[in-house]
Amino acid sequence: MYGVILLLVLAMVVAACSSSDDDGKSADAGSKKGDGGKNQVEIFSWWTGAGEEDGLLALIDKFQEENPDLKVKNAAVAGGAGTNAKAVLATRMQGNDPPSTFQVHGGEELNKSWVAADKMEPLDDLYKENDWMDKFPKDLIDLVSNDGKIYSVPVDIHRGNVIFYNKKVFEENGIDVPKTFDEFVTAADKLKKAGVTPLAMGDKESWTATMIFENVLLAELGPDDYIKLFKGDIAFDDKRVVESAKKFGKLLDYINDDHASRNWQDSAQLVANGDAAMLNMGDWAKGYFVNDLKLKTNKDFGYFAFPGTEGNFSIITDTFGLPKGIDNPDEVKKFLTFLGSTEAQDIFNPLKGSIPARVDADESKYDEYGKDTMADFKEASLVPSLAHGSAASEGFLTKANQAVNIFVTQKDVDTLIQSLKNAAPEM
Ligand code: BGC
Fold first, then answer.
1. Measured distance CA(111)–CA(92) in Å, rounded
2. Which of 161, 280, 331, 366 could form a disulfide with 309 if both were Cys (CB 3.0 to 4.6 A apart)?
3. How far is the CA of 250 from the centre of ligand 1 (A)?
4. For 205-225, how does the pLDDT look when each residue is reduced to its tens digit (9 = 90+)?
5. What residues does ligand 1 touch, defined as CB less than 6 Å away?
6. Per residue in 100-152, pLDDT tens?
7. Is residue 333 classed as helix, strand or coil in its secondary structure?
């Protein structure tokens, strides 16, 4: 509930923000009743612009082709990780004007914000009709379930604990892939001396810094205790959390000076053009590198697990559900059925940089990165991402992002720990 209230406050801040995408096309979200009548399916997401929208547009095209009688309205609101979209969505949901379906991360973002507020229809029947129960990994179904009912359909699985690096920069500077924090620091010092920014960051939207912090936490705590931390079973003043804050501070010594004016795409460009060596980003960055910047996987850029997190998989899953109170549930179920098909998942994910949520997708459609990630996903310990809404409520995440944002400029460990402790009851 706190999450919803906070989102509402945030919504007021961005209320003036019209929902237009990067190309300036008005997405028109919020100006009409969301479902827009029987023959229209309105898809609400934050997939706009470079690296984000290719997959969505390909999905929409295919769905349109198969359902010529239905009109699809793309109601995307720009802003990485849903920075603006989540607030616009909160306003619409509170005003009983839900979109036909909307992007929501599996885990607490779905459960604590929308299921807890009784805004979502269960989808167990849809899963049964489509014979999906063994087509999605059980852990993933659990992430989109609450009190034994399933509430959304996952379209992808992104990984958050990856570092992408510029291969040429590594080669030219004699850098080996660092596996530990100390190895990372040694490599970063060498790069810095050579005049290369070791780590690209673009925290114009602060979630990108929160991602780095959560990966340091994962490395320090290990997967079980990382999960316990966000369940409230380990305190934020635990010495390993304090150590994580210190290490996070150390990593910030290696970022680009203009980090605060860049978004995630802008920071990825620094690695693409060789001004920076590494980037910790979800693998939507892979989609951006390959599809937008035309870089080649394992030739122009490589990838490795965030130091200390090998064998773990920080999971970010984009899912879509069925809001209560819309006029066209049958049409929306058609779209959700499509979204859950191997056909749709294999159109979307190779473009998006993610792997399919389904276990029976066609591996040949994915590049080496995709294949490696699918293999890792099967073996790894899965942990929910904080920065992308799965580990804790929106209320906590908003405060964590604010605390991290302050830390990036002040680097005060005690203040960060105290802010997280204060926010913990909202998890
Ligand atoms: C979403 C991704 C998206 C990324 C950047 C994440 O929260 O899960 O689909 O590409 O944000 O906007």
1. 18
2. 161
3. 26
4. 999 999 999 999 999 999 999
5. 46, 52, 80-82, 158, 282, 284, 316, 318, 388
6. 999 999 999 999 999 999 999 999 999 999 999 999 999 999 999 999 999 99
7. helix
